[in-house]
Design goal:
Keywords: Oxidoreductase. With about 500 residues, the chain is an alpha/beta fold. Helix content is about 40%, strand content about 20%. β14, α15 and β15 form a beta-alpha-beta unit. The longest helix has 20 residues.
Length: about 500
């Protein structure tokens, strides 16, 4: 088997061969203490690179650089110039799309064809969408009771933002975080997940090439310890985090104690409902994509499927057949539809859930228990469980892998009860020809996003986020811009009485 670097295009191979340093204050530098960590290819478990490991001194340096930029060159830029820089960055990402798609594939295990079709274009569109916002952010004048008084509001950037992104959509999530914060005029310290640091570092090079003032965007690679140092740093004004609910709780507690602004996009155990009048073929295809896209490693995965009893056997049979035929393989193989899970740790986590489901009495209709010690990459084939009940761990806990539980229901009220029986509230959906019934369910099911005859639809202009244990605040759209803006009220007495 040839090495990963030999299978890459020239640009991606050249990047992989370069030193992988921190980006602080417009410079690429090693960690202050010289520490590094390793990153691996999930398709082969091959070592890819050594990456700088940011410690407390690096966090302070990055936060200081961000503050200097906020008070200096970046903060003084007119709104139109901010928009132009965002548009320039979008163009650079688009120009380097093939390289970025390959880097994402080898570092995170997502098929290169998926990166080309979705992740990279979505990142480009986020920067393009938000590039139009800086010149549209307006305060307002307020007709107050006091005579001879002018009262107006200003929209000002929150300040220095710590942004911590996950490993399942590394470049796209970086765009989700960076674009609105930059449009609002904030400065940023971005920390990618330790499993997938490469595209964030390549993005830092493109930020540099685009001409953002030094310190506007800083990128620190490291693990949870690095993230904790960043969250706790007194120079950080806001924390934005996407990741697990458990870590989100810790961040919320720390940010609350320090009165820092916070947005959290967390986990889910999302219900997908197939009503008796659904288009069966469309429901099977949509439910399959809803759970198995990115090998189930999505916060919005439709991991609980509830099917009206009249359609249950047909839907289950269709899903099982599709699962058995799914093209699972290495991420750089252009025939691959579903890659490996991201790491050995995630592989064993998913494997443990599959074993637990079998032990609890669920029926493993499709898929298998992956080997305890895989040869090569961390591949888990799509799993379909039937004969499940709501108390099983596989029904209640977020697995973050290609594992679907399917259960029947007899009426709509039962489906709503099953759907809402969860600590999470990120997404939900329904498959039906009856739009009246669809919109009734949209009102009754507790979720931040609700899909009718589709799954995981998104657009930079449309808010994304959840309720309950699925998070606080929203990504995307004007709603996310507001999370990076402070409203200041100004009073002027011009005609004292």
């Amino acid at each position: 088997m040839r090495s990963v670097s030999a299978a890459l295009g020239q640009e991606a191979a050249a990047f992989l061969a370069r030193p992988h340093l921190l980006y602080i204050g417009g410079h690429f530098v090693p960690a202050a203490d010289g520490k590094t960590f390793s990153t691996y290819d999930p398709s082969s478990s091959e070592h890819l690179a050594e990456v700088a490991y940011a410690g407390a001194a690096d966090v302070t340096a990055a936060v200081t650089a961000a503050r200097t930029a906020l008070d200096g060159d970046w903060g003084r830029l007119p709104a139109s110039a901010r928009g132009q820089l965002l548009a320039r960055l979008a163009d650079l990402i688009e120009r380097h799309a093939p390289e970025l798609a390959e880097l994402e594939a080898i570092d995170g295990g997502k098929p290169v064809v998926v990166n080309e079709a979705m992740d990279i274009p979505a990142a480009v569109e986020h920067f393009r969408y938000y590039s139009g916002w800086p010149t549209k952010l307006e305060g307002s004048t307020i007709p107050v009771m006091a005579p001879g008084t002018l009262c107006y509001t200003r929209l000002e950037p929150v300040g220095v933002c710590a942004q911590i992104i996950p490993w399942n959509f590394p470049l796209m999530m970086a765009a989700w975080k960076l674009a609105p914060a930059l449009a609002a005029g904030c400065t940023i310290v971005l920390k990618p997940a330790e499993q997938t640091p490469l595209t964030a570092l390549r993005l830092a090079e493109l930020v540099h090439e685009a001409g953002f003032p030094p310190g506007t965007v800083n990128v620190l690679t490291g693990d949870g310890t690095t993230g904790a140092e960043l969250v706790a740093h007194p120079g950080v004004d806001k924390v934005a985090f996407t990741g697990s609910t458990a870590v989100g709780r810790e961040i919320a507690a720390r940010a609350g104690a320090d009165f820092k602004r916070v947005t959290l996009e967390l986990g889910g155990k999302s219900p997908n409902i197939v009503l008796a009048d659904a288009d069966v073929a469309a429901a099977i295809a949509g439910a399959f994509d809803g759970i198995y896209f990115n090998s189930g490693q999505s916060c919005v995965a439709g991991s609980r499927l509830y099917v009206h009893r009249s359609l249950y056997d047909d839907v289950v049979a269709g899903l099982a057949a599709a699962a058995r035929q799914a093209p699972v393989g290495p991420a750089l193989d252009r025939s691959t539809g579903y890659g490996p899970v991201v790491s050995a740790e995630q592989y064993h986590r998913v494997r443990d859930y599959i074993e637990d489901g079998i032990a609890a009495g669920a029926t493993l209709l499709a898929g298998e228990v992956p080997p305890a010690e895989p040869a090569g990459g961390w591949f888990v084939r799509p799993v379909v469980f039937t004969e499940v009940n709501p108390d099983m761990r596989i029904s209640r806990e977020e697995i973050f892998g290609p594992v679907l539980v399917v259960a029947p229901f007899d009426d709509v009220d039962e489906a709503v009860t099953l759907a809402n029986d969860t600590a999470y509230g990120l997404a939900a959906g329904v498959w039906t020809r009856d739009l009246r019934q669809a919109h009734s369910l949209a009102a009754r099911v507790k979720a931040g996003m609700f899909y009718v005859n589709g799954w995981a639809l998104g657009d930079p202009a449309a808010p994304w986020g959840g309720m309950k244990a699925s998070g606080i605040g929203r990504e995307m759209g004007r709603a996310n811009l507001d999370a990076y803006l402070e409203v200041k009220t100004v009073w002027t007495v011009y005609d004292p009485q």
